[in-house]
Amino acid sequence: MNILGISGQERDAAAALVQDGKVVAAIEEEKLSRVRHIGIDYAGGLPAQAIAFCLQRGGINFAEVDAVAYYLEPQKLFHREMAFRSAHALDVPPALTNESVPEYFVETLNSLRERLKTRQLAESKLTGKGQFIEVNHQQAHAASAFYASGFERAAIIIANNKGDMTATSLLLGDGAKIESLNEAPYPHSLGLIYNAVTAALGFGADAHKTMWLSATGKPEFIKLFQDLLRVKKNGLPAVNDAYLDAYGKGQPSLAPEFFDNLGVQVRAHDEPINQRHREVAASLQAHIEDVLCEMATRLREKTNEANLCLAGGVALNSLAMAEIERRAGFTNIFVQPAAGNAGCAMGAALSVWHQTLGNSERHYQMQDVFLGPQYGEEEIKSVLDNCKIGYEYFLTEDKLIAEVARLLAQGKIIGWFRGAMEFGGRALGNRSILASPVNEYMRDNLNTFIKHREDFRPFSAAVPEERLNEFCEPSHLTRFLEGVSRVRNEKREMIPAALFGEGLARMHSVNRKTNPAFWKLLTKFDELTQVPVLLNTSFNLFGEPVVSTPREAVRGFYCSGIDGLAIGNFLVKK
User: Fold this and answer.
1) Which of 64, 106, 451, 507 could form a disulfide with 485 if both were Cys (CB 3.0 to 4.6 A apart)?
2) CA–CA distances in Å: residue 138 to residues 47, 149, 164, 336, 480
3) How far apart are CA 20 and CA 354, in angstroms?
4) Which pTM does this prediction carry?
5) CA distance to 154, 331, 412, 425, 510, per residue, from 304 (Å)
6) pLDDT tens digits for 372-402?
7) 144 class by beta-carbon count within 10 Å (0-12 exposed, 13-18 middle, 19+ buried)
């Protein structure tokens, strides 16, 4: 059976294909369209390129799709949004006329229309046997984590911004079933608070910048954040309504008085970052970590489960996920690598397979995220020849790896394009920019001259899985780069460019079976330098999506200070 999952009406549109209970393909639309955070409504109603890729990788056409799983229930969401906005709008007229229709009503109705348009487009492509199935948004998130985890049983936390007007959910996964235990309605949202502070700090919607900035400051304002957000006895977050504003438009945010108390005005993106900004970021991060750890601990005590799964946009906060692993008392933890709306494409399809269709046997466990496009040697050669680029071709992978390792040991920066593209926002060794971590100036070089971004942003440190414990404490979050680790004191001088904060690093353990080429490269680099670690960052520039095709990789190489491009078994040098 073929189940196509689609997600991301507002942003982060994606598609995934599940065949007989196994995920065989998944890709975000932005990686193919080259438009960041694109939503289905901007893509003509469907993530068309992502769908086309998934069908091609699965060897089927749309006529062979048995079900389209959609990550929302549009009409239920419409009624929830209307109820929420009506309850908080101050100028709701007693009767609607053409002149008195509130703006929020028009916006909500237009959103419903776009979502129904998506359904109509999908149904028009299905044959008589195919059906369009709507999945509860929180269930889609939960399914993306629990069914991919391999756990037979697990507690589940979903924490996001707005979702389907449910901001936080506590659930329990058991076999093929997922049961909702409790939920917090919007605006009792960790994502709302984090995004509002991020915007005030001048980072727009880039919450990860606030997270990394927090490691450079002290939590001097944590008491104010404690007054803003607490955990109730039922284990769910509660936002102090006195600090919320803009209810009249149905889109609450933090009130100006809250930022007045912080002593922070909205920073323009080109203004310098001062110590107060760092302290605010640190205070926000510290309290969000405390809240999530308290929620997780209470859920463990309530369910008596040893395993925990997490998804939702808040689960992309690596620092917080690491704290949950350390402090909440679970034996095992799994965070969906595509924890945001993109991952709901996979989750919706898996939910339909297990929950809707009642398939009790589970055939899938996420061992890697290499679910996107890949290219053969002839396709790569065609692009290089067409661009009239000089290159070396290596007859074996081992010879290419030996040369790339030699260049990296010399301090060169290498673009690494190999195998199938990653699903999710993190580069895990197939669409990467690589560099040596032994010189602390390499971090500044990469940030300033390659990535053109803030100097406080750290890079991941890739290490062979079996060598991980030499550098840091064991963690379940290193395979998919979902946490951070404290580097052992005696190893810190070996990898200074990978460190941030107080001896922390974004450790990425590379498995020999799931990514043999990258594992071999790390091993060869170790032979040359006695350091089995490489800096790894996503292969993208200028705020664009990660490169997907050979042509995009070539463009990124020549538009940057990257010294070499290893693409397939080809090597291009400047």
Assistant:
1) 507
2) 21, 17, 8, 13, 22
3) 10
4) 0.95
5) 9, 11, 50, 32, 32
6) 999 999 999 999 999 999 999 999 999 999 9
7) buried
Residue pair 531/363 in contact (Cβ under 8 Å)? The answer is no
- Beta-carbon count within 10 A of 490 CB: 9
Question: Left, alpha or beta for 481 (phi > 0: left; psi -120 to 50: alpha)?
Answer: left
Q: What is the pLDDT of residues 147-158, one digit of tens each?
A: 999 999 999 999
Give the ranges where 424-549 is alpha helix by DSSP (H).
Answer: 441-445, 468-471, 516-529
Q: How confident is the model at residue 329 (pLDDT cuts 50, 70, 90)?
A: very high
| Complete domains list, the chain, with CATH | 2-71+73-134 (3.30.420.40), 152-337 (3.30.420.40), 377-573 (3.90.870.20)
90/92 Cα distance (integer angstroms): 6
Helices (H), 376-425: 377-386, 397-409
- As a dihedral over the C-alpha atoms of residue 344, residue 149, residue 518, residue 33, rounded to 10 degrees, the angle is -10
Bin 503: left if φ > 0, else alpha if -120 < ψ < 50, else beta: left
Report the distance separating Cα 497 and Cα 460, nearest Å.
10
Helices marked H in 100-168: 103-125, 137-149
Q: How many CB atoms lie within 10 A of CB 450?
A: 18
The pair of three-digit structure tokens given for residue 232, joined into one six-digit string: 């109730």
**Distance, CA of 528 to CA of 440 (rounded, Å):** 19
d(CA 172, CA 170): 7
CA distance 459 to 472: 16
**Distance, CA of 12 to chain centre:** 10
Strand partners, 159: 168
Place of tokens 């990653």: 422
Q: Report the C-alpha gap between 556 and 541 in whole angstroms.
A: 7
**What does the alpha-carbon distance between residue 527 and residue 186 come to, in Å, rounded to a whole number?**
53
Q: For the segment 400-423, what is each residue's pLDDT rounded down to a tens digit?
A: 999 999 999 999 999 999 999 999
